[in-house]
Amino acid sequence: QVQLVESGGASVQAGGSLRLSCTASGVTGGVVYMGWFRGEGREGIAAIGRDGATDYADSVRGRFTISQDTAKNTLFLQMNSLKPDDTAMYYCAASSGSHYWQPPRAPAVYKYWGQGTQVTVSS
């Protein structure tokens, strides 16, 4: 049983910043990738591998930064220059087992999911 818990979501004005965190517990197998997703379709906005390689969606590249503390099994998402279109429920997720050339942003790759944290950006 793996549990992921997100925190840091809030209401913020356009142009502001937020930092999301996700802590994993109960991991019995090695986590290969972690990522951030948003909305009903679980749009993959950022992913990171154990070696630190990253991949970003075009919609957030240059504004968001994904990072991790592997020793503490914690994932972060620094969000700057927030826009109203960024309003969504944000989820963290973790994969295991498979390796890819690039950190995957496809939600089907990820097995473990958090409950989400709400980000609301107002004009």
SSE layout:
Layout: E1 3-7, E2 11-13, E3 18-25, E4 31-38, E5 43-49, E6 54-56, E7 64-69, E8 74-79, E9 88-96, E10 112-113, E11 117-122
Parallel strand pairs: 2-11
Antiparallel strand pairs: 1-3, 3-8, 4-5, 4-9, 5-6, 7-8, 9-10, 9-11
Main traits of this protein?
single chain, 123 residues, mainly beta, seven-stranded mixed β-sheet, four-stranded antiparallel β-sheet
Percent in helix: under 10%
Strand coverage percent: over 45%
Largest sheet properties = 7 strands, mixed
The structural class is mainly beta
Count of DSSP helices?
A: 0
Number of strands: 11
What's the quaternary structure here?
single chain
The unreliable regions are none
Helix and strand run:
EEEEEEEEEEE
Shape: globular
State Rg: 13 Å
How far from one another are the termini? 40 Å
Round the mean pLDDT to the nearest integer and report it: 94
Give an overview in words.
Helices cover 0% and strands 51% of the residues. The chain has 123 residues and is an all-beta fold. Strands 2, 4, 5, 6, 9, 10 and 11 form a seven-stranded mixed beta sheet that branches. The chain has a four-stranded antiparallel beta sheet with strand order 1-3-8-7, with no helix packed on it. It is globular, with a radius of gyration of 13 Å.
